[in-house]
Amino acid sequence: MRNPEPSLTVRAYAKINWTLELLGRRADGYHEVRTILQNISLCDRITVTTTAGPDVIVQCPDPRVPAGPANLCHRAACLLQQAAAVPAGARIRLQKGIPVGAGLGGGSSDAAATLAALNRIWGLHWPLEQLTALAAQLGADVPFFLIGGTAVGTGRGDRIQALPGCPGIPLLLLEAPFELSTAAVYGQVQGFRADAGERTARLEELLRASRDRQGIASLLINDLEEPACRLRPELRTRLAELRQAQVLAAGMSGSGPTLFALLPEAAPPAAFSSLPSAAGWRLRWAWTVDRGWEPDPP
What domains can be seen in the chain, in order of their start residue? Predict the structure, then answer.
């Protein structure tokens, strides 16, 4: 190890899925997907400090976030520590800004940010490809958060190819007052696409050529939306309300339950002030960004 930095604070950005198409079930039990993922400005902040002893300690004031092996940051640190034969340990302080269990990839983003930060402060200098291979062992979408910005995911969603970024697009997030189990949502899936993910392919082609907001809106799709709505019918109601407002399009991120709307450039904030009318739903503004993780300014 060479000149490790003792501590580093990074931002771990959330994501939405512009598209998520289910193509079938794989032999390993996972689903074959084709998806376009997009980082958004909502983020957690993670401070990673290298320690002399070998222990990995995770601290978070949010009681819903586990500390220890059940935490993805803990697993990420231990995995890198073992793979690189690092004798040092780490203390990881996690400040949540991304809601837990919301379909926004908070845990996966935190794991990727932990890998990137430890790679730096432990002085490992692993290339992105090497870190990404390790990240895939932690979860299907963890590799995306190392690459960040806008990307297409295939396979389990872990084979990531970067696309031209489209930062600065305003979004409206509607956060539900409940969580949804990813396994439970996938358990409601009743069929798969006969094509190879045509909508995703069309959006991928569009994004390589332009940042046309109307074009993006016309191609939004999420095959987990209907399964999630079967579990929580109120999602269907809220989506209908969003789609009747002055938005270009609305959809669900990942396996839910967070909903998002793509806004036209001239949309006034007052037009959406009445949307979170049901008890416990939270309205939040965000925008698209270009990085999966990013150090805080010194």
Answer: 1-298 (3.30.230.10)
33, 153 contact by CB (below 8 A) = yes
**Cα separations in angstroms, 113 against 11, 118, 119, 130, 146:** 7, 8, 10, 15, 7
Q: How many CB atoms lie within 10 A of CB 125?
A: 10
Instruction: Assess whether 15 carries a catalytic annotation.
Output: yes
Instruction: Kindly state the percentage of the chain with pLDDT values over 90.
Output: 67
CB 59 within 8 A of CB 67: yes
Residue in 187, 156, 165, 182 with CA at minimum distance from that of residue 101: 182
Give CA–CA dist 215/245, Å, rounded: 19
User: Of 44, 110, 141, 223, which is the active-site residue?
Assistant: 141
Say how many C-beta atoms besides its own lie within 10 A of residue 168's C-beta: 11
pLDDT at 275: 64
User: Could you please report the per-residue DSSP string of 136-185?
Assistant: TTT-TTHHHHHH-SEEEEETTTTEEEEE---TT-EEEEEE-SS---HHHH
Give me the catalytic one of 15, 96, 158, 223: 15
- pLDDT, position 1: 44
| Exposure on the CB side of residue 34, measured as CA atoms within 13 A | 18
pLDDT confidence tier of residue 2, bands split at 50, 70 and 90: very low
The answer to whether 96 is a known catalytic residue is: no
SS3 of the chain: helix, strand, coil, percent, to 5? 30, 30, 40
* 118 touches 80 (CB < 8 A): yes
**Selection from 124, 142, 133 nearest residue 81 by Cα:** 124
The values of phi and psi at residue 204, to 5°, are: -55, -45
